[in-house]
Amino acid sequence: MPDPILSISALDAFYGDFQALFGIDLEIEQGEVLAIIGANGAGKTTLLRSISGLTQNAPEMVKYSGEAIGALRADEVATRGIALVPEGRQLFPSLSVEENLIIGGQIGRKGPWSLEAIYKLFPILEERKDQQSTSLSGGQQQMVAIGRALMANPDLILFDEISLGLAPIIIKDIYEALPGIIGSGMSALIVEQDISKALSVSSRFYCLQEGRVSLSGPSATVAREDISRAYFGVE
Ligand code: ATP
After folding, report:
1. pLDDT digit string (tens) for 57-72?
2. Which of 15, 43, 74, 168 has the largest CB neighbor count within 10 A?
């Protein structure tokens, strides 16, 4: 087995006195697409926040390319090659589409992603490049959020519920773009409430329930009743 690109061990996370994650262990191989599923409040976003430096942890709890990054700030984590597409997109509302994309590239990592490459992936964004990002539809805003993360030329990209609140046809478009995004060896961690979507694009999954890993394994072969039990906690 090659060394994992990301390795999480015994990760706890707290909001004040409230414990949101309990001893999470998780690994992603280079080039792997991993799905994180779980009900509302299971801790999926908190896990992504811990990886991307929005929540600080003990250094050794999160290792990336063999280095302990658990205590780094978000900008330091981004510079090392981890990009987050956050839940709710969080674009800069007063900036244009192109300005939002350019901001993503400002950490200056080299790689295949540029404005041209993003516009090739999502041609509608080139048509709308001078518009304020908030004037776009929800699906187009999601494309900007994905493009902004790609502009950082990450080795690992974290997607937090990219289909939330979008029409099925748009979700289909975005998921059809995923292989083109993830190809060429990038690793991805996809948080998704749509279990079928998550399993169909990933090689392995982890299911969280109340801050703990309740089930993990290969996405292709997991039984539906096992997922239901791990997801909802019903017997
Ligand atoms: P969702 O699908 O609703 O986004 P999630 O699986 O991403 O859910 P988290 O957002 O990680 O779950 O939340 C995990 C737990 O932590 C929940 O019980 C939530 O109420 C709590 N929590 C999240 N953010 C905060 C916060 N800023 N302060 C206090 N508690 C929080």
Report:
1. 888 999 999 899 999 9
2. 43
Task: Give the number of domains in the chain.
Answer: 1
Query: Which residue's CA is the nearest one to ligand 1's atom 2?
Result: 40
Is the separation of the CB atoms in 188 and 182 below 8 Å?
Answer: yes
Asked whether the beta carbons of 136 and 97 are under 8 A apart, the reply is yes
Ligand 1 proximity of 17 Cβ (cutoff 6 Å): no
pLDDT < 50 regions, the chain: none
Please tell me the predicted confidence (pLDDT) of residue 233: 78
Tokens representing 158?
Answer: 């974290």
pLDDT recorded at residue 182: 84
Find out whether 129 and 148 touch, Cβ atoms under 8 Å: no
Distance in angstroms (rounded) separating the CA atoms of residues 134 and 213: 36
Residue 107 tokens, joined? 């950490």
